Fold this protein.
Amino acid sequence: TDVNYDTWKDNLSELYFRTKNYDAALKLAEEVFAVRKEMYKENDPMLLASYGRLSEIYEAKGDIEKAYTYLKKDMDARVSKIQSDFSIMNQNEKEQYLSTFRYRFDEFNFFAFQHAATIPAIAQDVMNYQLANKSMLLYSVSAARTTFANNSDKALKQLYQTWLEKKQFINKLETLSEEELNNNNYNINTLQEETENIEKELFLKTGNNLNTSNTISWNTIKSKLQPGEAVIEFITIPDYDDTCANYNKYAAVLLKYNTAPEFIILCREDSLLYYMQKKTNEKDQQYISRIYGYAEFEEDALMYSGQNIYKLIWQPLESKLNDIKKIFVTQSGLLHKINFSAIPVSPVKCLADNYQIIHIASSKIIADGVSNVTLNAKDTIVLFGGIDYNATDEKLFAVSKKITTDLTTISPVEFSSVDTTAVRGGSWKYLPGTLQEINTIASAMKENKITVLSYTGENASEDIFKNKASTYDVLHIATHGFFVNDLPSTVVKNKSASTDYTLYNSGILLAGGNRSWQGETIKNNLQDGILTAAEVNNMDLSNCKLVVLSACETGLGTIQNDEGVFGLQRAFKLAGAENIIMSLWQVSDKETALFMQTLYKNWSSGISLQEAFIKTQNTLRIQYGPYYWAAFVLVE
């Protein structure tokens, strides 16, 4: 058969489809499909195109069952293609490759949105494709890194270290000016190419052992759920219906320990945004009190939006949760900005009163067994706080020279004339509360015979952080955090072609960071004190069971619906950290310190991190409103 003749037929079929002559379109599409089925392998793009064409024609003709059959064939073939191709790609290639497929997952979800009522079983496929697609990049990259870091082949391990070092070196070069680069003969793009080739080599050498995208079905997840447990997969669905304005919709797939998945339609994104949008001149505390407050009477409806947020994203699920006590939640889109435990159900109760809610990056985590992380005597906690953001070059240089010697006993620095009303974020003032916070944690942990290292003043430098972070079990960073749409050009002066800039928009401040932020050049080849998510991404934190980001807005970043938030949270996950505690909004020193002290005290009593976190929230809830107790989320 002539391939061109088939393509011509296929084009004509599309023309008939667009002019709503569905019978003629179907006749040609079926002829083309019959030929392609003989000519091509199961997941060849030509065959996938035929599945897609047949599906849309049958849907237009009103034969939803047949449309579903072909759409499912298309999706299954794509998922298996992604999984076979993924294992040898580096991170950049994976990102580009996935972006060419993502729209099909969205289209399938839109199909489910329209037809779940007539085909309830479609919820099972939605769940399976969510498992294949949600956080796929994050999951495959972190799984690969764990394999590299723990490999028995010494040469491969060394190659992995070289790769990380080269990536860190590129991060450093990106802070230099054009002139400085030229004077030293550095070409960022050439170096970038070298690191990508090393990454490719790593993937090729471990290809067979790399189970980075293993298929997990909803059945596997269900088998791991205990009585009283459920998973809710929230989904953002772009609109593919020409008749409507182009807005996203939200839906959820609910999987309980004793039933198959159910597809539940929630709301339009613009309705949710209406209540979640921060008003002009609305202070943080007013804003949080409004979205997590519940208006009992009509006249209070302007003061509180919590009852409306509840109606939109939780009420449609409520009737199905009668026997459920513990819920694993994976977020999407705008929902990343919500602490579900704090959503109010009445003027005096919130979801935390009815359920134990656990935020997870992907439901795959349940298949691996949710970590039961405890704190024990052999663990070491590293604390960074009371940081001198204006530390001089001389001080930073002296600190970097000490790196080879151990720095366990470093005295806290006394600062005069500090601003005690400090909120973490904004202009980078000294935060006295962070010193108090880490000192209190340190003394409480020492009583429990747990080793603690504290870095304060100029000693809390980026050089120290990068040198020490990878070897310890718990990393606690109490400092300023930032999320900006664009970093000052003083911070990133040179951007290489293939760097992911969504990871440059967020970070934390370490010693001397103020000076770099204002455009001063840090001498002696020292780090600049601004630790971006891009730099964290290039560290190896696979030994780390918990990272605590006790800074403002460390949970924020650029939201990409199914991959999650591209910011610090993602970077620490990519670097291998098992659990992350971070903040969704700015919180003042006193309450942050109280939250953290209570958390460590609870955790060191022998209970799991998850239990300790929930217990801490419940303790603070007695005394404080959501602005204080709901600022932090634990993501596993």
Summary: The chain has four domains: 3-119, 139-209, 218-367, 380-627. The two ends are 54 Å apart (CA to CA). Residues 294 and 300 are 9 Å apart (CA to CA). The chain has 26 helices and 16 strands.
